[in-house]
Amino acid sequence: MAGKLIRHKWQKVLLIVFTILLLLVFIPALLINHYWSPILSDKVKTAILEKTDSLYRVDYTNASLHVLKGEVIFYDITLTPDTAVYRRKVKQGFGPNNLYKLHVKRLVVSHIHPFTLYFKKKLDISRITLSAPELEVSYNPVRQRDTTTKDKRTLWQKISKSLKLIHVGDIYLNDVQFKYKDYSGSKLQVSQLKELNLKATDLLIDSATQTDRSRLLYCADIGAEVYNYTGKSADGLYTYHVKSAKLSTQTSALTLEDVNLKPVNSKMFFDDSQQDRFTLHFDTVQLKRFDFLTYHKFHTFNTANLILTKGSFSVYSNPNAAIKKTDRIVTFPQYGLKTIKAAVNIDTLRLRHIDVYYNEFGQQSKQRGYVAFNNTNGTITNITNNKDSLAKNHRAVALLNTNFMNQGKMRLKFAFNLTDPAYSYSYSGHLGAVSMPAVNPATMPLAMVKITSGQLNSLDFDINSTSKVSTGKVTLLYNNLKIKMLKADTIKTYKNKTLASLFVNSLIIKHDNPDDGEAVPRSANVRFVRPPTFPFFKTVWQTLFSGIKPNAGVGRAKEEQALKEMDKHDKKVKERALKKAEKAKKKAEEEAKKAREELEKKRKEAAKKHQKN
Q: This protein's superkingdom (predicted)?
């Protein structure tokens, strides 16, 4: 059959030539695959050892080279650091902050162009794929900045004598098992990721990209996707969960979806901690122009925009703080920012549709009171503890719009001095119309006061504060204010203090501001000295409350007068009750004596009767 197909001489010549070419290609390829694979293996191991200055060594069970396919395959790769070399580098000041351990079942380098490499000195690879890699990173901040060696050449300058460029189209890391060990704190923190995929695109090392700052690790883009990331805080008081996280170095953007931070139950938390208790949820957290490489190297957090969208943030003030007599200066924003070990630099924090709650436990009522700021939108600028940034601008400013208790429109401005040892700050704002009973979730548990009626027309305040004292002005305009004084009945209910309510409504509070017929409303100059046990949010709340009381006519003189009247009344009530009790006691004693006498008489009569019989 073959003879019939090859009828012409040119066909025979072509077949012979083709067969010779196949032999010329396949036989060297087989020889190269067989003999060069071990040589390649040794070369790679030696190169890793030399290029990392003996810090890392690489081992693998087998390496094979397929010339015709343009493919290199490595099996069971392990990359491990030499701890003795690492310690030596640390002493010399060149030790890296991160150490890596890596195990890969299979690494495939696809579509290498050998002729381009040989004739043009260009290493061009279409794809590198790592299957089921297990990566462990240990972070120990032995240095806070890059330390240069004597050799200041770029990577391309170091390889340019042997290669003109290195190019890899795509690098895939699928199903990565990632473990991160953080030794920067007092306790080791371990984080693990199991659903992680990484992809690097267009890795290019040449004369043009050697100084290209738009590329990270010489790649046009490095993308990472993490799903269902869950962990615990070092103290075990919080758990956190992120449904998904996506990072792109090309856009310098990190996006987190469905972010949650949940504390343990209140009793367990406050038994083990003197801190305030936080709960948060955000639908989306976005970091734009995020410097990932600096964060990875030094845990320095630099981002132009941090955007929090649709969620809630709740603070529960620790009820044991006053008992333990600790100074709650630690709750001030400036203090917290100052004590963060890592450098933080956030140009602008943007809040979009966030509900904010401040919760406090009423010692008398044994119930939780809260203040709510719903649908909060706004910006906070210059959140930083970086010395260079603080030298340029030492103020963080918050401009916020919110709905107070989900009703009144409120504008707020906070300004924090980030370098002042006295932790100075200021705040001002305006609250529009709101029904005053809407504040009862705060006043009933925390002040034992129920507002039964009243319409708040406006609240304006301007306060300047330090960690010790707050001064300023508060103006509250309202109509038809009436209240009831309360006392705790059971854990879940209140009783009205009828007489006290009568005294307060008749002798203390004014029902309108301005009063009927008056053109000029009352306002109050505030001076509130912070007790050391008061946290930041409670200090703000109590400062405003100390200004609201005089606006409602609750002056010290009137309070003292009403208290004296109530004391007199209580004294008379007690005296009457005491006399009544004594009279009742005396009557009971007389009745008991008469009963005993009657009983004794009957006993004697019974005895006489028995003797006669």
A: Bacteria
